[in-house]
Every structure is written in C-alpha cells, then in structure tokens.
Amino acid sequence: TEESVLIREACYRCIGEGYNHVQGSVSFQAWYETELQPQLAHRLPSLLTGRGQLSESVLQARALWLLGVCGHNLEPAHWCSAYELVVQHMATHDLVVALTAVSSALALTAAIMDDQQALEQYDAATKPKTGIPNMMDALQLQETAEQVQQGGEGVDAAFTDMRARVERRLAALSGAMSGALGGCFSLLDRLTEVE
After folding, report:
1. pTM for this structure?
2. Its domain of life (predicted)?
3. CA-CA distance, 32 to 181, in Å (whole number)?
4. Are 90 and 101 in contact (CB under 8 A)?
5. Domain segments of the chain: what residues?
6. Cα 156 vs. chain centroid, distance in angstroms?
7. What CA–CA distance (Å, rounded) separates 32 from 28?
C-alpha cells in the first residue's frame, strides 16, 4: 500500500540520517543483500520504461540515497554491484530518481578518494624520508607515523585490506565510468523538466 511505502521510506531516511550512531547495530551489508539490492533491481525495469508508480519512485530514490550514505561499508563485490545499480538508475524516466542516482554515485566515488588519501598518507609515513619537507607536510607525516607505530601490525593489515578494497572498487569504477558519465550528460537535456 502507499502508506507502507511511505513508512518504509521514513525508516530508510531515519537509518541513513543516523547511520553513524547505529552502524554497530545495523548490518548494512546484510540489509543491502536481503532488501535494498533486490528492491532496486526488481523495480528498475519499470522505472526505465517510465511505467513505474510514484510510490515506487519515492522508495527507489530513498534506497539510492541510502546507498550513497552507507554504501562505503559494503564488501567489494557488493559495492561493485551496488555501483552498477546506481549507474543504471541514472537512465530512469523519473528525474528525481536519476538525480539521486548521480548523487549516490558521487558519494560512493568520494569514499574511494578518501581511502586513497589515507593510503597515500600511510605510504608517505612508512617510507624513508629524503630531503626537507615543508612544515605542514612534516607535521602530518609525523602524526601519521606515530599512529602507524602505535598500531603495529594491526595497522599494516588494515591498510593492506584497504588497499585491496580500493583496487577492486577502482576496477569496478573504471568499468562503469563511461556509463556513469553518459548518464550524467544525458540528464543535462532533461533539467528543463524541473525549471
């Protein structure tokens, strides 16, 4: 019913807004596998053909938004499939769903960039220093090096896992990049719909 769709949408919004506070209690990975992924995949064909109902569009847009907020916690294989679903939603007839998909794709991409920056800082802190760095770089490297030394092998293992995760996500991202860019540029012509 329409009421149940609105209640579900409100639940998605609550979890997304407070995700930093509930991520220890909510397994986003399991939730994505059992609810969000099937829902996004099942309703996509009707939205691509323009035969989707408004209530479906509302729920799809919120599920896509939720992927942008929480998707960084997905395992690499599920992250790749989630990114593909997000890119496919850029072609939907519902402009709100399409623009929400663009926003989610940007959020998922930004998470990769954050991980890459952390890896670069780790690499800089663990390699031998040569030359004279500027003061800000020296302070940042010193702080990162102290954190690495305090963490010991656990930090090394965490960064090794992060590096593998980033590489898998970058591979998926480069494979979907032409579709994502095409989806974004095709939306430019449709922006007159909202004016």
Report:
1. 0.73
2. Eukaryota
3. 25
4. yes
5. 2-194
6. 24
7. 6
Residue with tokens 């996509």: 44
The answer to whether the CB of 74 falls within 8 A of the CB of 29 is yes
- Structure tokens belonging to residue 24: 């220890």
Question: What is the distance between the alpha carbons of residues 93 and 193, in angstroms, rounded to a whole number?
Answer: 11
Structure tokens at 165: 């995760």
Instruction: Give the chain's mean pLDDT.
Output: 81
Residue 124 in tokens:
């800089």
pLDDT at 59 over 80: yes
Q: What angle do CA 37, 66, 48 make, to 5 degrees?
A: 55
- The three-state DSSP-derived secondary structure of the chain is CHHHHHHHHHHHHHHHHCHHHHCCCCCHHHHHHHHHHHHHHHHHHHHHCCCCCHHHHHHHHHHHHHHHHHHHHCCHHHHHHHHHHHHHHCCCCCHHHHHHHHHHHHHHHHHHHHHHHHHHHHHHHHCCCCCCCCHHHHHHHHHHHHHHHHHCHHHHHHHHHHHHHHHHHHHHHHHHHHHHHHHHHHHHHHHHHHC
